[in-house]
Amino acid sequence: MKLKSIIISALVVLVGSSCKESYFDINTNPNTLPTASPSFVFTNAVNVTSTNMLGYNEIGSYWAGQWTQGNGYIINTAQFAYNFTDGDFNYWDGIYDNLSDYEYVIQNADANNQKYFKGPAKIMKAMVYQQLVDMYGNVPFSDALKGTASLAPKFDDQKTIYDNLVKLIDEAQTDMKANPFASAFANADLVFRGNLTKWAQFGNSLKMRILIRQSKVPGKEAFIKSEIGKIIAEGSGFITGEEVGIGGSGFYLATAGKLNPVYDRWGYDANGAKRALNNYPRITEFLINSLKATGDTLRMKRIAYANSGENGNAPGTSTLKEVSANYRGTPFGVSSGYLPANTVPLGPSLIVKGEFNRPYIIMTAAEVQFLLAEAKQRYADVALPNTAQQYFEEGIKQSFRVLGAGAANADAYKGSGVVNYDWEASTDKLAAIAIQKWIALNNFSGFEAWAEYRRTNLPVTPQSIQIIGETKRPLRLFYPNTENGSNGANVKAQGTVDVFTTRLFWDVD
């Protein structure tokens, strides 16, 4: 766990008090790190989670077939020809550093009379750990986050970790019911500003994500149904009609280093100058053509700006007229012929000039509705109050809303006969749910889209143009060389990892 800023502050205080006799107390260990308030650590940890997610949401958006690379750059073969090694895509180190902060909060909240941070810290720990498992499979869990007490932690079985994450969320719910949030510390919570009801709903929504991810694993049905029953009995419900976001207004500022991370990377700097990387991610030809083919142009125009991008003099609108003919996607992995001026970039649902203080979204209400739709469709006897159709249609509606396409416009698909949009017209209900979830995750949760793509194999997206005559696609990441260097025996114990054939436990087909 890195607490550099806190340590520096503590040293300043130490220097300022150096004339006091107590400073020379020989019973004080000068090598002991200063302690930090769990509230400070929690605030920092949540912010770090958002910046970490930026990286793996990007790679997920590519490998889920939603984004590709603009041709103003040399093609990235690690991303689009899958020529990567254990030196690429190291999200491991940053994630474990982040998890250590959440563990610090959990272990120190009681002693600092800040018990109300334990539940939220456990929920965030569960979310981040699930993402880690969904990248690497078996990882250190029970022996991890112990500092010098366990410098070479053993790896746990990924299935067992998933079960423990369900238990961790249950613990969080118990903690939050027992420890009302102190209003004086509400601003330390960058997610819900101390609203534990919202935290409970997020916990239930996250638990549903963990359960549904395992829905195709043989022998898991009884467990999943039982746990859904526990969610219902808990009584708080799910995130509805709003997103789970980090930061937002009052936290992100128009100052270098303090902007929303998405805005800062692919949008504009603190002075409103367009970033060079604004031309890098492009929306895929497959996505644009799919939306056009189903008449889903309202969402298309929010997922992407028209060719050549945003009109800087009229933020939130395109330079070109926003008609379908001016929306051209980029084939996945193509290296020439699709320059920024004639292809679509990330749209106003994600980036608008001047809107540097949007929250960083970590879960959408649309995703939650599609999770509920799948749960009800698979397990009709669970006591969820609505039908699978109602959850499905609400998922589309929430997707329209969060994209800025007008929730009411989603109703046009009811009875339309458009397969995978109109419930009655869709013979494969689970496929319709999967495809609509894939659309809804665009621009917000790329890593989740990649995980679901691996689980469902939907939609059937084109292979990268960089791959000729092969069907291989990444199913996971290599363990990073940093872990192999410091914990090599335990890495080796996981066996040979082939990123194209070594499946995670929930990726059964």
TrEMBL record:
Q: Which UniProt keywords apply?
A: Lipoprotein
* UniProt-listed InterPro entries: SusD-like_2 (IPR041662), TPR-like_helical_dom_sf (IPR011990)
Q: Which Pfam families match?
A: SusD-like_2
The cross-references to SUPFAM superfamilies, in alphabetical order and at most eight, read: TPR-like
Q: Which domain of life is it from?
A: Bacteria
Note the Gene3D superfamilies from the entry: 1.25.40.390
Name of the protein in question: SusD/RagB family nutrient-binding outer membrane lipoprotein
Supply the source organism for this entry: Emticicia agri
